[in-house]
């Protein structure tokens, strides 16, 4: 094989994976080139690259899925090689061929291997010939009741896009249509296929790495069973609870699959393991996986560096892979609301920070100040923990997520923490139905203390209005606060300017002041909290009628309270543009929106109004749906596409559709009125004597 030396590299992707590849390139001294859509003009991966090339437009079909534009960008920037990342064109054989035809080095497997594995149906035929166990496909056209439940999957890609579970034959045509549309949007190919759906199966995969010198490594197993909408949420390596014979069988099958297609580079062979412990081949992803960091942590490798090494024609460092050490767990942090059908969230991410500790790693695609838009996947970052044992790694990751500072749109952070601490996860009782069974409990209001957090927010706001530059201490230190200190806190620039500090009229009173009140709405639960406080002669605000609470220190960004003898600290971050406050404590985090004293009547909507939960595109409405139609509670009425996923808008009650404003193909903003359903009146009670 010809040897190359890669001096500059274009990543044909965006977000977290582009930043991840750039990190290795910097370590190796390789110049980095980014591509970006108009929506990503100021994205983190663009800021981190040495060079960047614009792809005009915003939709993936116009930008990141345009292989011709990406190749032209690589040539324009003088890139020597192209890394596809994951998703988009990463498993597109035509794109890989176009890269090589343009004289560029392709950091990926051979085109033939991609072609053989790109179609999941052809891949299964090939694996059957290689002796790899698999599930037999089902023809949707001839499927019967005995074939249910069925799993529909996109033939041209993974990541859960285009995937549907069908439990009733009557739903099969509609789900086929929806799966095909979603697959076409994500991969540019609407082909889908069906196979039996295994209840309570585990998603277990094997990382492979192969070179052009006949060396193929099987780098252990990963368990990726915790999934929402067939997309992975928490992954770990090695997969727990597998006996040695099953692990060996999976390793052998993965190596056989790689050798069967002459594979080179990093790839993943995915299996479904039944509750009885029988493995079935699912697919081979001819690319780097989102969850690759857990394998890197356990084996002490940089898989991206190995990809580049193999692409340069070099052999793997040794015939056998290194020995694994310890356990690693990864959690995907999404801007989404799990309690509301996993609705993606948009807006400005004000802060994203994870504690810095040994064994922790953060792979992020966003940072504080970035905007989360509607065009792409809502994953913000991945947090990875590595420790000697599984319980230690799980504990470290849960604690890191719990203490993370994440301010802005709603995220799945709390769900991740609760999932990691769930008894079934702790005991490694894992399967793909975990969230189907436990989601309600995992998203229920927790045991935290939002009322006290709201009190801390109100006290911080009060100090911010009167003493923004200096902490005001009370309690045991109240006598140390002098009038001059308070005046300087009110006007911090006065002392620097010279002369005595001015004292504002009314700063001191001979009578106790009446309580002031603040109202907050907690997010995302919507619970309201009213806080009463007053500012006594010391000038430091204190809670009103709150026995057992003592204020020890208060300033605009930090409040220390003593609650029944226990000292607790609260960090407060304000977003003045949205009247929102974020309160972080060692055990929990809260988001509050300040409410006006009086409600604006214009904010009310008519009963039965269906509002767009996010910005997006109306892709279709239910067949025959029009004003005057009768609808049933829970009936899907409108399909909205946002962040590369389809979201159903359901009828809130049985009744009559009195208005339909949703038009297929139209863009809508969050809160836009889509339709109105007038609920059927309750039947009048029948008099007892008549009955």
TrEMBL record:
Q: Could you cite one Gene Ontology molecular function of this protein?
A: ATP binding
Query: What's the cofactor?
Result: biotin
Instruction: Locate the region Disordered.
Output: 499-530
Show where the ATP-grasp domain sits.
Answer: 101-312
Enumerate the spans annotated as Lipoyl-binding domain: 601-678
According to its UniProt record, what is one Pfam family this protein matches? Biotin_lipoyl
- Check the record and name the SMART domains matching this protein: Biotin_carb_C
Where does the source fall among the domains of life?
A: Bacteria
State the UniProt keywords alphabetically.
Answer: ATP-binding, Biotin, Ligase, Nucleotide-binding
Give start-end positions of Basic and acidic residues composition bias.
521-530
Residues in domain Biotin carboxylation? 5-440
Q: Which PANTHER family match?
A: BIOTIN CARBOXYLASE, CARBOXYLASE:PYRUVATE/ACETYL-COA/PROPIONYL-COA CARBOXYLASE
Full protein name: Acety-l/propionyl-CoA carboxylase subunit alpha
